[in-house]
Design brief:
This protein has 10 helices and no strands. The protein is mainly alpha-helical. The protein has one domain (about 1-220): MetI-like fold (Orthogonal Bundle), CATH 1.10.3720.10. Helix 1 runs antiparallel to helix 2, helix 1 (about 1-30) packs antiparallel against helix 7 and helix 7 packs antiparallel against helix 10.
C-alpha cells in the first residue's frame, strides 16, 4: 500500500498543475474568441466530461491496445509498468480538464470588460491582459478548480480499475489506496480492514483540502 500512496502523490503533483494550466489556457482562449465558433469550442472542450468515466476509460483502453488500437504501429505499450501512470494521467486530464475549463470560463465571464479596454488603451497586449489582469482576478475560481482536482486525485480509482485487465502486472491490486481497499473488501472479505482504510482516506482528503484552502486563503476569497 505504501507504493500506492507514493504513486498517487506523484500522480497528483504532476497531473494537477498540468490539468489546471490546460483548463486555464482553454478558458482564456475561448473568452478572448469573438467568432461564432467560440460556442462550438466551448462545447467541444466540455464534451469529455459528459462521457461516463467507465465509457471514457474503455475508449482509451481500446486506443491503448497494442494489438487492435490505432497506435499499435508505434510499438509503444501504453499499459506497461513504465508508461501506464502517464496513460492514466492522460485519461483523467482528458476527462476533467473541460469541467475545470467551464469553472474558469464562468469566472472570466463575470469580470468587468471595462478593465480590459483600459488596459488596451494603456498599450497592454492580449497576452499581458490574460496573464496580468484576467488570471489574478479569477484566483478564487483557480483555487476552487485546483481543490476539486486534488480531491479527485486522492480518489483515484475507476480509471486504473477498468484498465487493470489489460495488464494486471502493471496495475496491481495495491496500485492505489482506493483499489487496495476495494480488493481487501471484495476479493479477500476483509471488510473491517477495508472500512478502516476508507475512513483513513476520507480523513486524508479532508485534511489535505483544508491545508490547501488555508495555504491559499490570502490569494482567494474562499474562507
Amino acid at each position: 500500500m505504501r507504493e500506492g500512496v507514493v504513486r498517487v502523490l506523484v500522480f497528483g503533483l504532476v497531473q494537477t498543475p498540468v490539468m489546471i494550466v490546460l483548463a486555464l489556457v482553454a478558458a482564456l482562449l475561448i473568452d478572448a474568441a469573438t467568432s461564432r465558433f467560440s460556442r462550438f469550442f466551448r462545447l467541444a472542450a466540455f464534451v469529455p466530461y459528459a462521457v461516463p468515466v467507465v465509457i471514457g476509460t474503455l475508449m482509451w483502453g481500446f486506443l491503448y491496445s497494442d494489438s487492435v488500437g490505432p497506435f499499435a504501429w508505434t510499438g509503444i505499450d501504453f499499459t506497461s509498468t513504465g508508461t501506464v501512470l502517464a496513460s492514466l494521467g492522460n485519461i483523467v486530464t482528458w476527462q476533467w480538464a473541460g469541467y475545470n475549463m467551464i469553472v474558469l470560463y464562468a469566472a472570466l465571464q463575470g469580470l468587468p470588460r471595462e478593465t480590459y479596454e483600459s488596459a488596451r488603451i494603456d498599450g497592454a497586449s492580449e497576452v499581458q491582459i490574460a496573464l496580468r489582469i484576467k488570471t489574478p482576478m479569477i484566483s478564487s475560481a483557480l483555487v476552487l478548480a485546483t481543490l476539486f482536482t486534488i480531491m479527485g486525485t486522492l480518489q483515484f480509482f475507476t480509471e486504473p480499475l477498468i484498465l487493470q485487465p489489460l495488464n494486471p502486472g502493471a496495475i496491481t491490486t495495491h496500485y492505489t489506496p482506493n483499489i487496495y481497499a476495494y480488493q481487501q473488501a471484495f476479493s479477500f472479505q476483509q471488510y473491517n480492514y477495508s472500512a478502516a482504510i476508507s475512513f483513513l482516506l476520507g480523513a486524508v482528503v479532508f485534511v489535505g483540502s483544508y491545508i490547501f484552502l488555508f495555504a491559499t486563503r490570502k490569494r482567494s476569497a474562499l474562507q
